[in-house]
Design a protein that fits this description.
The structure holds two protein chains of two kinds. Chain A is of the alpha+beta class. In chain A, 38% of the residues lie in helices and 17% in strands. Chain A has five helices and three strands, in the order H-E-E-E-H-H-H-H. In chain A, helix 2 crosses helix 4 and helix 2 packs parallel to helix 5. Chain A starts with 6 loop residues before the first helix and ends in a 14-residue tail after the last helix. By secondary structure, chain B is α/β, with parallel strands linked by helices. Chain B is built from 14 helices and 17 strands. The chains are: A alpha+beta, B alpha/beta. At the A-B interface, loops of A face helix 12 of B.
Chain lengths: 135, 422
């Protein structure tokens, strides 16, 4: 337990980075976790060519894992091209979270990734296969 | 089937939940923290007593062949046991006749059977179907689909802030003359026990039939469909200590006789030619294909076990646990309890929210403390919307729970509060 909820995660949960809504924005997407109904949205500002992420913010409510995951993921996105964002491996995010996520909580951890993919691919995407064992 | 072991039933204080754990092999394995498993998720599904597991194994080893087909000893034996399960279940739920009990997979399938068969034959554009805001999705989505397909209207009886059906709202909606009232006896998300006999009386006076979702009541309290006066009742075997994969629909025989089949194929026919088919009589008209032969025998063992305990004792035991748990949780700062506080209107299901801590985080911490609870929307998202919360944590009791489980639960609540206050 202390492993999963170590200070790093709780710190992101209590003081999330990049929380809020960017207005105006170039991209916006929202999605939800069907097992708990948690909703998460992201807004993006792109460079003049519309190809690179200049700024990003997330909003929504959810558990410590989903909120910390969104905080950690959005930290990584500034300066990233949309192509690079599309090619992100969800396992890298799980690694970045840095704590062992059990199968029942994988969707909590990957909701932010799913919202990102919906935004950069222009529509809702399937859960990544790594979440297939999740409830 | 005879029980393979003596069952400790009652002490002077009623059921001894801690002693009953010896009958349930799931408790032989410690939880991940090395301590005794505290199982508080029986509203989702119940562990099985050894007698049920043995009955399943015994069915496959000694009493197994297809039913209603073979002209040989094994098939006759399996058929007698399958039909015996139907009789036992009919008697257990106070059904006037076992011919009114249809075996299905679970309560969800039972409700779908009614929605597809009775619903599509009887509900027309402009008709009203009445359900409630506290229903499990199983007693809500099939009616939404029926309404979409037929052009009927679906309305929901509102719930009050303490999680009861609003009687005034019920009366005003019944005055519109619904065709059907679909209602749970016990809410899986709130624990509320609805006054079904009274609601049924009012619904019948308004000209409606009543479908009872009995999935959360039949396992936990004496239920007589005849005394309640309802027209349809749906239940699941796996929540009443029986195997998964078997449940039942009970309905009044004249309704079943008039309803078209739900699924068609083998076994449910009387005569088939290439031009057409005559249906078998009820209940077999509704049991197409090979049914859950072994599971029915396991269900009989579950009913044996519950009847040996006595359903009055089961209800009294859970009422006592509810009172203890409600008191203990109310005493902790930052705990918000849902549903009625009256123990006569609340089953052994407690849904709660901890201030500032998401139910998924609560359940994960509990899991590491060896406690199994449900966290989520409990397949009742409209209930969550009513309270404007994404989810709750739910602790639900059964025969193997005892005050020591409540002590572990309250300790774990304090542990998660400490962790998130850090």
């Amino acid at each position: 337990m202390d492993n999963l909820y170590r200070d790093f995660i709780l710190e992101h949960y209590r003081n999330p980075h990049n929380k809020g809504l960017l207005e105006p924005h170039d991209l916006q997407f929202a999605d939800s976790n069907p097992t708990c109904g948690d909703e998460l949205s992201m807004t993006f500002v792109l460079d003049s060519g519309g190809e690179r992420i200049v700024d990003v913010a997330f909003d929504g409510r959810g558990c410590a894992i989903s909120q910390a995951s969104a905080s950690i993921l959005t930290d990584e996105l500034r300066g990233m091209s949309l192509d690079e964002a599309r090619e992100m491996d969800p396992k890298d995010l799980l690694e970045g979270i840095g704590v062992p996520i059990g199968p029942a909580r994988l969707k909590c951890a990957l909701l932010s990734y799913k919202v990102l993919q919906g935004a950069v691919r222009g529509g809702e995407t399937a859960w990544p296969e790594v979440a297939d064992v999740a409830g | 089937m005879a029980l393979q072991q003596a069952i400790p039933t009652t002490t002077s204080e009623g059921l001894n939940g801690a002693a009953l754990r010896a009958d349930f092999p799931i408790f032989d394995t410690p939880a991940r923290n090395g301590e005794r498993l505290v199982y508080l998720d029986s509203a989702a599904s119940a562990p099985k007593p050894r007698s049920v597991i043995d009955a399943l194994s015994d069915a496959y080893a000694h009493h197994y062949a297809n039913v209603h087909r073979g002209i040989y000893e094994l098939s006759e034996d399996a058929t007698a046991r399958y039909e015996g399960a139907r009789k036992r279940l009919a008697s257990f739920i106070g059904a006037p006749s076992s011919r009114e009990v249809i075996f299905v997979r679970n309560a969800t399938e039972a409700i779908n059977l009614v929605a597809y068969s009775w619903g599509r034959a009887n509900v027309r554009a402009g008709d009203l179907i009445l359900s409630t805001e506290m229903e499990h999705h199983a007693n809500l989505v099939p009616w939404q689909q029926l309404a979409i397909e037929t052009g009927a209207t679906l309305e929901y009886v509102r719930i009050t802030d303490d999680g009861r059906l609003d009687p005034d709202d019920l009366a005003s909606r019944l005055a519109k003359g619904p065709k059907l009232v679909a209602i749970a006896q016990v809410s899986n998300a709130l624990g509320t026990i609805n006054p079904v006999a009274e609601i049924t009386r009012q619904a019948h006076a308004a000209g409606a039939l009543v479908l009872l979702d009995a999935a959360q009541s039949v396992p936990h309290m004496p239920v007589s469909v005849a005394e309640l006066g309802v027209d349809f009742a749906a239940l699941s075997g796996h929540k009443m200590l029986g195997p998964s994969g078997i449940g039942a629909l009970w309905a009044r025989r004249e309704l079943l006789n008039a309803m078209p089949p739900f699924m068609t194929g083998g076994s449910m026919i009387r005569r088939v030619t290439l031009e057409g088919t005559e249906w078998n009589e009820v209940p077999w008209k509704f049991e197409a294909g090979t049914p859950a032969i072994a599971e029915a025998q396991g269900l009989t063992a579950a009913i044996d076990y519950l009847e040996a305990l006595g359903m009055d004792n089961v209800r009294a035991h859970e009422r006592e646990l509810f009172v203890k748990a409600w008191g203990a949780l109310s005493a902790i700062d930052g705990v918000r309890l849902l549903g009625p506080s009256d123990p006569d209107a609340h089953a052994g299901v407690i849904s709660f929210v901890l201030d500032g801590i998401h139910p998924h985080d609560v359940a994960t911490v509990f899991d590491h403390e060896g406690i199994a609870v449900r966290a989520g929307h409990h397949c009742a998202q409209p209930v969550m919307l009513h309270y404007d919360i994404p989810a709750t944590t739910r602790a639900s009791f059964y025969v193997y729970n005892a005050p020591d489980d409540i002590a572990r639960l309250t300790d774990a609540i304090r542990a998660v509060q400490r962790l998130f206050a850090r």
